[in-house]
Amino acid sequence: MLLLIGGWLLWGVLSKPKAAPKGPQPIPIGAETVKVGDIDVYLDALGTVTPVYTDTIVSRVAGMVTEVRFKEGQIVKKNDLLAVVDPRPYDAALLQAQGQLARDQAALNNARIDLVRYQNSYKQHAIPEQELATQQALVDEDEGTVKLDQGNLASAQVNVDYTRISSPIDGRVGLRNIDPGNVVTANGTTGLCVVTQLSPITVIFVIAEDAIGEVLAQMKDGPPLQVIALDRAKEHALATGTLLTVDNQVNTTTGTVRARASFANTHNELFPSQFVNARLLVKTLKQVNVVPQAAIQHNNEISYVYVIGADDTVQQRNVKVLATEGETSAVTGVAPGDRLVTDGFDKLQNGSKVAIRQKAAAGPAVKDPG
Known about the structure:
The chain has 4 helices and 21 strands. It has 370 residues and is of the alpha+beta class. It is elongated, with a radius of gyration of 43 Å.
């Protein structure tokens, strides 16, 4: 009896149908759809904030500084008085020049009167021609003396004007190098102070020589190109300006050319000699295939994506990247509506079965208790 029961159980186990072996599990991935849109094409470069004008203020005459009319860091306008050098020696020299001119002008007038008398006498054959010629030469000599005196007077007046030192430009005054009572020399190398124009201000940056043609074409045919100045970490835009010009030769050592952009800088966002990152907007690509940057993979010099088919299998497809802005790229090689893998690439290969992970739904809105 026991043998019959055991046989019956064994037969039941052996006759039970075996489960079919399971196939490979789908690979969980993230996915995004190819969209159509516009994307900006930028050139990124390192730049330095460079004032349009920077003037070292020096005295044009020697003497003691009697007044300092500016404060360090002050914003000044063109022709604002900055300092005064003791004018008394130059006023005295001016007075001397005026007296010298008056004396020689009187001598010239007298010589001209005599010349008229000599001319009349010569017509009456009262004097020889030699005496007339001598008097004419005396008049010419006195005229030259008067011109010399006029030059000396003008020079003396200029020196008096130079005792009042004014700002040649609008700008900001730096640290002071003089105090009242200091004696300055004419055309010294140290300078009384430095005035730097802050508004407008420029940024000088470099462009790779391969991009020169495209930039010049855009400058010629389109509106002024926009340039954005960002901070050192490229996290904050400091100011927005326009491209002024490109230099006239390529640096053969670096293969780049310098470019200058102008910024209004009305709120002093940029500071002279500050390091910035410059972004030059070359053009905008219209109605192109836009994909997440995360979907693009690279293999040596080839860029490719994984396209998800209708049967949820993937196929590798080569693409060409036209431009990248932030986390988005414009590419060719895909079509609008194609689904692309954006993460989970580790085990992917052509024909792999995938399962798209659903994005987490946003939580319920919290009502305002008020």
